[in-house]
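Lab notebook, design round three. We kept the backbone fixed and only want residue identities now. Task for the bench partner: fill in a sequence for the structure below.
Input structure tokens:
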């Protein structure tokens, strides 16, 4: 079975109850032996920062509970090196992708994870990064 890492937008959609995302998360969790979702500490920061900005204190608690049941991957020297490599390669081609997304892509790539994102087109220029969209259609796991 493919292992996945969730992008910030997918977690946001899940927490908001988007039906397709919610169904895919439930299907994935029922099919995997790990019984938990994976995302990066960059995504943790992005979600929490957005909620703090909105002063959405109830949602912050909901997110923290969600995160406590998930595997949160940390940045590592290999993931940082991969992110820097992605940056250099893309910049030479005139393509700019934001630092948080490059860091998430690096974590996904070095851990051999498929990035679950609604922004597949955005991540498309990153060679070697596998993506799937759980907001588009129900997946088969």
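Proposed sequence:
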């Amino acid at each position: 079975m493919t292992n996945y890492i969730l992008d910030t937008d997918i977690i946001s959609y899940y927490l908001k109850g988007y039906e397709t995302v919610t169904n895919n998360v439930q299907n994935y969790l029922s099919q995997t032996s790990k019984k938990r979702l994976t995302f990066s500490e960059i995504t943790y920061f992005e979600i929490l920062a957005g909620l703090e900005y909105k002063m959405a204190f109830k949602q912050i608690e909901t997110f923290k509970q969600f995160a406590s049941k998930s595997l949160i991957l940390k940045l590592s020297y290999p993931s940082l090196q991969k992110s820097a490599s992605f940056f250099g390669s893309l910049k030479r081609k005139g393509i700019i992708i934001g630092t948080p997304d490059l860091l998430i892509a690096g974590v996904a790539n070095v851990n051999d994870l498929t990035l679950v994102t609604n922004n597949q087109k955005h991540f498309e220029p990153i060679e070697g990064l596998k993506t799937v969209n759980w907001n588009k259609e129900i997946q088969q796991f």
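Keep this in mind before ordering anything: The longest helix spans residues 77-92.
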